Amino acid sequence: MAKSNLSDAVLVNNYIAGDENSLALLIDRHQSRIYGYIFSKVSDRDLTEDIFQETFFKVIHTLKSKKYYNEEGKFLSWVLRIASNLIVDKFRNDKKMPLKRDTEEFSIFSNIKDSSLDIEKKLIKNQVDIDLKMIIQKLPHDQREVIMMRYYSDMSFKEIADFTGVSVNTTLGRMRYAITNLRKVIEKNKIYLPS
């Protein structure tokens, strides 16, 4: 069996047993989701890189010391918890750091970029992104969290459930309520969202 087909649990055990390449495979497998999750919280590339590296430093330290790690098939959720804790620590230590910065690159509703957009369309699109972000920030925390993980980090509902410690049904319910609440605010404020 090719190493790339091995489960996270097997790769973790191989790494603990001394196979350094197994960790490289785990990082390659999950780096875009972890990076996207961190960026969705801090909106700064340099800070995202720092926290990403610090996250894997902690992963390596924990796995090498063979302490405090219980696999249960949830490697990605475990790593995201480490990243989340590091982000919270950073916010606590640097109260001046902004929580969000509006960037076109990581907008949850601009996954597909069209380089042929003219200036007027770009301005409209930027305003729509800003409006959506403001609306999303007004959602209850649990609904906002599931929207951010689903769209920014491209996490599956099962991964979100594992990370938040609730059932998949609860996660789906939170997403449903979030979308319903977003629609209500959009209709009430007569916000125009071009397709």
Automatic annotation (TrEMBL):
Domain RNA polymerase sigma-70 region per the UniProt entry, residue ranges: 26-95
Keyword Transcription regulation: yes
GO molecular function terms attached to this record: DNA binding; sigma factor activity
Organism domain of life: Bacteria
Boundaries of every RNA polymerase sigma factor 70 region 4 type domain copy: 132-170
GO-annotated biological processes: DNA-templated transcription initiation
Keyword annotations of the record: DNA-binding, Sigma factor, Transcription, Transcription regulation
Pfam families the UniProt entry points to: Sigma70_r2, Sigma70_r4_2
Keyword DNA-binding among UniProt keywords: yes
Family: Belongs to the sigma-70 factor family. ECF subfamily.
Protein name: ECF RNA polymerase sigma factor SigW
Native species: Flavobacterium sangjuense
Gene: sigW_3
